[in-house]
Specification:
single chain; mainly alpha; 6 helices; globular
Length: 142
């Protein structure tokens, strides 16, 4: 169990570093397109993998079908969004932002019930901020 928390904490730190990198790129507008095409998929791949692993782990540990369905469903949405971002499709960032909002809204009511909902809320909020800033920057500068 502690091993899972360490991986989630590492993912959170990776998302935090991506947010810092995004802030630096906003200051250099000529690199913004490069960032949106090549860097924006990384948090979605990370979150997608974590959600799928978390959903399967929740099912294996507690036989929770809702954990399995929600984890795999949101994880697949993140992975689809990451692939769309990688391919340059216009709706990839919106999909990742939607997956982040869905995960955040579903984990907020349970945030005080243990470390897993708290980690889900924190990482989905970080991913949501990242994709919100990316979408805002792209819409205001194209």
């Amino acid at each position: 169990m502690l091993h899972l928390y360490a991986h989630a904490l590492n993912a959170f730190h990776a998302l935090r570093d991506m947010l810092r990198h995004q802030r630096e790129l906003v200051l250099t507008p000529h690199l913004r397109h490069f960032n949106s095409a090549n860097m924006s998929g990384i948090p979605a791949y990370t979150m997608g993998g974590l959600c799928i692993v978390g959903g399967v782990t929740g099912y294996v540990r507690t036989r929770s079908v809702p954990s399995l369905v929600a984890g795999v469903g949101v994880g697949l949405l993140y992975l689809w969004s990451a692939e769309a971002i990688k391919k340059g499709h216009s709706n990839g960032i919106e999909g990742a932002l939607g997956a982040s909002a869905l995960l955040l809204l579903s984990s907020l009511p349970r945030v005080t019930k243990g470390p897993v909902p708290a980690i889900l809320a924190a990482t989905s909020a970080a991913a949501g901020v990242y994709y919100g800033k990316t979408l805002y920057a792209l819409r205001n500068h194209q």
